[in-house]
Amino acid sequence: MISIKNVSKSYGDTRALKDFSLEIPEGGIMGLLGPNGAGKSTLIRILTQIIEKDSGEIIYKGQTLDHSHIGRFGYLPEERGLYKKMKVGEELIYLARLKGLSSGEATEKAINWVKKLDLKDWWNHKVIDLSKGMQQKIQFIATVVHEPSVLILDEPFSGFDPLNAGVVRDLILELKKSGVTILLSTHRMESVEELCDRIVLINKSKKVLEGDKQQLKDSYKENKFRIRIKGNGIGVLEGIDHQLVEDSGLESEYLIKPRTEQLASSLLKSISEKVDLVAFKEELPSVDQIFKQVVNQSNHG
């Protein structure tokens, strides 16, 4: 869908992006991660053509990205911005028309979205009269009302209570299912775990990690396993370091690590022969753990 090739951007003497390259496949959700100041916002602003890159190339569907493609993008910025004295309906129609929809199309699609998000009774109210959470919903509608092919979401759950965050999460998954390509920038690692298929990590203006989320988890695993056994007879297991996680009396849970590498299947067999095994699961690192490890290595590398 989008090919970013050796893109660089500086603000005076400050390098925001350096020879940054990334392939964003069509469909699916890619998580854009990085510490504050890493270059994420600069990348987003270049993709949305708010600012110009200094060098490099961006290809969208086989064509050099230019202003003719703006209508195919939807952008939800971290800092929300609505015209608060406009009425909800008027604002949504206005913003949709800026993306190329006719008045009739904009009205129809906006009405459908406010119904979907249970905001139809607020159509003729000024935005300033809405709660913060409702305003966030209106901003989300404004981002997707023109049915973009590419959706760029910067901290989309900011300001939402858990219930409305769940509503927006489900809508994002619906959009993914419909074939929309989504770039999700967030510091909420639980959202990355739940939503993203791929992740890219930027640190100090450079890409330091990219790949399929599950494959990255597999590559960073540490040969650890979580087991639950009846009783607490872990001591009969030889050649295994263990850490108690929970002991209910009847059952106990441990995080274990064999001192030598072995297949999970053979480890499972050897453990089940010696203890009454209730559960056995390979322990994979979280995205948050991978994030911290890679950033620390990058900072000291």
What does the secondary structure layout of this molecule look like, with pairings?
Elements: E1 2-11, E2 14-24, E3 29-33, H1 40-47, E4 55-60, E5 63-64, E6 73-76, H2 88-98, H3 103-116, H4 132-144, E7 150-154, H5 162-177, E8 181-185, H6 189-195, E9 198-203, E10 206-212, H7 213-219, E11 224-230, E12 240-247, E13 251-258, H8 264-272, E14 277-283, H9 287-300
Parallel strand pairs: 3-8, 3-9, 6-7, 7-8
Antiparallel strand pairs: 1-2, 1-4, 4-5, 9-10, 11-13, 11-14, 12-13
Structure explained in plain terms:
The chain is α/β, with parallel strands linked by helices and 301 residues long. The chain has two domains: 2-217, P-loop containing nucleotide triphosphate hydrolases (Rossmann fold, 3-Layer(aba) Sandwich); 222-283. It is 33% helix and 30% strand. The strands form three sheets. A six-stranded mixed beta sheet has the order 6-7-8-3-9-10. Strands 2-1-4-5 form a four-stranded antiparallel beta sheet, covered by helices on one side. Strands 12-13-11-14 form a four-stranded antiparallel beta sheet, covered by helices on one side. The radius of gyration is 24 Å and the shape is globular. The model has no long low-confidence stretch (mean pLDDT 93).
